[in-house]
Every structure is written in C-alpha cells, then in structure tokens.
Design brief:
Blueprint lengths: L30 E6 L4 H14 L3 E5 L8 H10 L5 E4 L13 H13 L4 E5 H11 L8 E7 L7 H14 L3 E7 L5 H11 L4 E6 L4 H6 L7 E5 L13 H7 L10 E7 L7 H12 L3 E7 L3 H7 L5 E6 L4 H6 L3 E2 L1 H6 L4 E4 L6 E4 L2 H17 L12 E5 L3 H12 L3 E6 L2 H10 L3 E4 L12 E5 L22 E6 L8 H8 L3 E3 L1 H17 L3 H4 L6 H13 L13
Parallel strand pairs: 1-2, 1-8, 2-3, 3-4, 4-5, 5-6, 6-7, 9-10, 9-11, 12-14, 15-16, 15-18, 16-17, 18-19, 19-20
Antiparallel strand pairs: 11-13, 13-14
Helix pairs in contact: 5-6, 9-19, 13-14, 13-17, 17-19
Bound molecules: NADP nicotinamide-adenine-dinucleotide phosphate.
Length: about 550
C-alpha cells in the first residue's frame, strides 16, 4: 500500500467545536486536544485554563488518573467550570488506562458525563454496544460519542483498519477513533490512508516515534483531532507532541491539504535540530511546507510507501546517506563521487528522485571564508587551491570535506583511525593516507588546514581532542564538524596557538541554506535579504543551531 493515491481532500467535519472566528487563519479543521493528566479535579481545572491559554481547541480529561474521584460531585464541578469543550475519558486497565474498578460503575460515570453535558465522551469499542444499549436510544444533541479502539501490538493491514473503522461507524459512533502502534514508519501510511478516506469524523493515530507523522499530518489528511501533551515528558501516549511544539514548531494551524511534506531521514533522529531550522524558515517566507523527523529503518521501503507528490523533500543523516543515494533516479556528480547524499528532492513533473550532497558546500564555503578573513584574498579562485588540507576521519563528513577540498584544488591528506578507510578515501581524491595516531608527527609544512570530521570532542566527551595543542601550531586554520558544543576543545586550543577557527555550526547553517533553496525553489540571497527582514531568518537559523534546542523527542521519557 502506498500513499501515491491519497486524494488531498479538505473535509467538512461538521462537528468541529469552536466558532468560525476562532478558526480564522487556520488552513485545516483538525482540532488540537490537550490531554489533562491531573491527579485532582482542582488541578485539572487549573490545567484546563492553561490549555486554553496555550491555544488548545478542547481538552481531554482522563478521569482514570484522578485520585479520590467522586463522580457525581467532581464531574459536575469539571463540566460546569470547563473553559474549553471537554472530552471525558475514563480509560480502564484492559484498554491501557488506570481504572481497575467495577465496569458498570465506570459506564454509569460516562452516562453521567453525558447527562451533565460534556461535549465529548470516549467509549471503548469493546463495550460500545452495551453502552449504547444502556443509553436506551436517548439522544443528546450536544454530546458527541467517540468510539475508540487501541492496538498496543502493531498496525493492522489497510483492509483490517478499514473494516475496523466501518465496524465502529456501524455502532453509531459520532467520531471514530483508531490508535495503533507503529513498528515501522510506513505503518503511519495505512493510518493516514484510512483517515483520508473516512466518511465520518475520525481520529487516526499511530503511536510511538515511528508514528509521529500521523499526529502532525492529521491536519493535512482530514483528522478530526490530534492529541497534545501540556508539556514534554508528560505524554499520555508515546509519540505525542507537546502543545507548544505542535503549534509553534510544526505550525499545525498552517498545514492544509496542499502542504508539501519534507523531513530528515535518519536513525536515530530524535537529536535532530533540522525541524527547528526549516519549519520557522518555511513559515517566515510563507512556503506551504512542513518538515518532520523521520525515524526510518529501510529507506527504499519508506520512499516506496510515501511515493505520492505530497512527500517531496528529504535531508539525509546517519546511517542512511549511502542508502539514500542508491534510491535516487538521478544523482549529482559530486554526490556520486562521494558515494552519499545529504538531500533528496522529488521532481514534481515526473516524481523522479534527485540526490545531492550539500555537506561539502556548507563546510568548504565556511572554510574558504575563514581563510580569506585570516590571510586575505588569494590570487587563485579559492584560498584552498594548492594548500595542504588534512581531514581527520573518513566517514560521511570526512568524504564530503575531502572531495570538497579536492574540487577546490587543495592537496588532501586523510588521517583516520582505521587506516584502510583512510587509504580508500585518499585514493579517490588523489591524496595521501595516514593512520590517525601518526598525525602528531605529521607536519611537512606550515600553514596547513585541519578539518576534524570525527566525533572526538563531541558532547558529552568535551574534554577529548583528536590532536594535541602543541601540534596545532602548524595549521593556519582549524575546522571542526562537531557543533555540540559549538566551541570544542580542538577549536579552543587552535585559537590559543593563533590559528583561525571555523565552527561546525557554519557548516550546518550553510548546508541548510542550500537545502532550503532546493526545498522551496526560493533563492536564499534574495529571499532573506529583503529590506529589514534580512536577518530575521538568518538569525533563526543561527539561533537554532548555536543554542542547543532539545528536539521534540529528546525531552520526554517516552516519544
Ligand atoms: P561517520 O560516517 O560515522 O564517520 C565517523 C568517523 O569518525 C570515522 O572515520 C571514524 O573512524 C571516526 N571516529 C569515530 N569515533 C572515533 C574515535 N573515538 N577515535 C578516532 N576516530 C573516530 O560519521 P559522520 O557522518 O562523518 O559524522 C562525523 C561527525 O561530523 C559527527 O560528530 C557529526 O555530528 C559531524 N557532522 C557535522 C555536520 C555539520 O553540519 N556540522 C554534518 C555532518 C556530520 P573509523 O573509520 O576508524 O571508524
């Protein structure tokens, strides 16, 4: 099953809460439901108000988490004082909740919530027949019943999901809710497929980090609502974003049926700051795009599944840069030589996948700039031309730096822990290979350029360095690909011996600008240099990369 045929329909969901005025400026009708996980009704009411301030459309109150809960007294208090439309959920242990008491008491509490005028009530599919029967056909026009099904094992086939949705609908649910577990990111596609084809209002979620996209793309594919936690770390289910990330980082309100989906493909991916770069940038220039983290096991399976023209641009990171290249229809010559891509664009005219390697551009541009600033303009086209360029490392970043330096006419030396890899790369760039432990003795000339592309010195090992301070005096410029921390021990010591330094953040920012151009077709120079807006975006980029903004996933215990 692929996403190729998913029609992009904006659906009139009919039962959407909140007035038209509240939805002005929104490009979708998917509601943001803040989950209230309070221990007391008093606390719940306080958090409900906070949810309203944070921009939620409705709240879900989890009765099963309340201590000393007295239904008749507390439900009235909650419902009478609610600042937002409220969904009452009383989840039993057998459906993943915490209520382990008498089932008839639980259901009578849900009936009471209906009598008292709660806006929404959640009833589990397993007991939905019995529950509807107990209502005796009594209609409560202002109360919508969500019939929910939770699968904690996996995500069933598209046929099974379709049948499940039909079963829930046939019971008489006002809103269908299906939550599954994503074991692979492609499981998300099946949930989105069912969502987009649903004839009744539907909530479709694949939980876990691999299902994260369903929570955001519910807005694009016509979901009735998406759940958000009030804060990172207090999610009611794995993969749930916090409300501030949903609204401010992923620009949830601006996602519409035509929004183009981009993202970074990697494994792991929770540390990636890329969503913090591209989403504000897209918003700033009014580009109708979204950028997500994609935790991918198989690149080819991912690309095949999300083959529609809704999914159009990817950044690639460890360990998928080589696999990404193998999946391209066309590859730029430098990426082919390097053997890895860092960016992939889907050509809209024919759906072909085009691969680029922009890593080297980012780093080499920054190093050229640093050299020009420290030693002045050179007569040749590049200040790297003819210079001895020592690359430490022979992985993805090492290859990009070595090829980039070669393209600029530098003489390349590759120093790597594993000599065989150094030799292989050096051969490809017509350079020399040495084992890393010999680098201390290696100073055939003065004024060399050093580029560290290993993770030596990266957080948390910030007291590590690939080359002792006394050996740095032979270099006129030292670059470190690491950007956490910005100022590594290597760069601090290089500065102390008088070398110019170039930070890994520069590489990160420069390659991001190139990718931005690829994604949006907007030239960065003119887009970001318009009058006073100049550096708002440039500032965003820099801020995001210089300050260690934790990613949506790295903050919580669950994802
Ligand atoms: P990679 O493909 O896994 O390569 C890692 C390289 O580092 C290999 O050559 C490896 O040597 C070497 N290495 C790792 N640990 C080492 C140690 N303890 N001692 C000696 N050598 C060691 O990774 P990559 O994608 O090139 O990334 C490398 C670094 O660059 C990371 O810190 C990453 O964050 C950074 N990076 C930064 C940017 C940016 O925009 N600033 C972009 C890409 C990458 P062996 O061959 O012996 O294993």
């Amino acid at each position: 099953m692929t996403m190729a045929n998913v029609p992009l329909v904006g659906k009139d969901l009919g039962t959407v809460a909140g007035g038209g005025g509240r939805r002005r400026g929104r490009k979708n009708s998917c509601l943001v439901c803040a989950v209230i996980m309070a221990k007391s009704v008093e606390e719940a009411l306080i958090v409900m108000w906070k949810a309203k301030e944070a921009g939620a459309d409705l709240v879900e109150v989890r009765l099963d988490l309340l201590k000393n809960f007295n239904p008749s007294h507390h439900l009235q208090l909650l419902i009478n004082n609610r600042p937002l439309p409220t969904l009452i959920t009383y989840r039993p242990i057998w459906e993943g909740g915490q209520y382990d008491g008498d089932e008839s008491k639980r259901q009578s509490t849900l009936r009471l919530a209906i009598e008292l005028g709660s806006d929404f009530v959640d009833v589990e599919l397993k007991v939905a027949h019995e529950f509807y029967k107990s209502l005796g056909g009594k209609k409560h026009e202002n109360v919508k019943i969500i019939v929910s099904s939770h699968n904690f094992e996996n995500t069933p086939s598209i046929e099974e999901l379709g049948n499940l949705a039909a079963t829930i609908q046939s019971i008489g649910a006002d809103i269908v809710k299906i939550a599954t577990t994503a074991l692979d990111i492609t499981d998300s596609a099946r949930v989105l497929q069912v969502l987009v084809h649903s004839k009744v209002p539907m909530i479709g979620i694949a939980t876990g980090e691999k299902g994260f996209m369903t929570r955001i793309l519910s807005a694009k594919f016509g979901g009735f609502l998406t759940f958000a936690s009030m804060e990172a770390g207090i999610e009611s289910a794995a993969g749930q974003p916090c409300i501030s990330d949903l609204l401010d980082l992923y620009n949830f309100r601006l996602i519409g049926p035509n929004t183009k989906v981009h993202g970074v493909i990697g494994n792991p991916i929770s540390h990636s700051k890329s969503p913090h770069l591209y989403n504000p940038a897209f918003k700033f220039v009014g580009f109708d795009g979204i950028y997500l983290p994609f935790l991918v096991d198989s690149v080819s399976h991912f690309l095949h599944t999300f083959s529609s023209l809704d999914f159009v641009g990817y950044s690639y990171t460890i360990p998928h840069k080589e696999d990404g290249l193998r999946c391209c229809d066309e590859v730029d010559p430098i990426a082919k030589e390097i053997g890895a891509i860092s960016c992939m664009i889907k050509r809209l005219q024919d759906g072909k996948l085009l691969g680029y390697n922009v890593d080297y551009l980012g780093a080499i541009t920054a190093i050229e700039k640093g050299l020009t600033e420290s030693i002045g303009r050179s007569k040749s086209s590049s200040p790297l031309s003819g210079r001895l360029f020592v690359v430490i490392g022979a992985g993805g970043a090492g290859k990009a730096l070595a090829y980039g330096a070669k393209v600029k006419g530098a003489r390349v030396v590759v120093a790597n822990r594993t000599y065989a890899k150094a030799k292989e790369l050096a051969k490809k760039v017509g350079g020399e290979a040495i084992v890393l432990s010999d680098l201390e003795k290696f100073h055939p000339e003065e004024g060399m350029v050093l580029a560290n592309t290993t993770s030596i010195g990266m957080k948390p090992n910030i007291d590590h360095t690939p080359l002792p301070k006394e050996d740095l005096k032979h270099y006129c410029l030292v670059f470190d690909a690491i950007y956490t921390p910005k100022s590594t021990r290597l760069l601090q010591e290089a500065q102390e011996v008088g070398a110019a330094v170039v930070y890994g953040t520069e590489m990160f920012i420069n390659q991001a600008f190139v990718q931005f151009e690829n994604f949006t077709n907007l030239p960065v120079s003119s887009t970001f240099s318009r009058g006073s807006s100049i550096c708002i975006l440039s500032w965003q980029f820099r801020l995001c990369s210089l300050v260690a903004i934790p990613s949506a996933f790295s903050r919580g215990s669950s994802v």
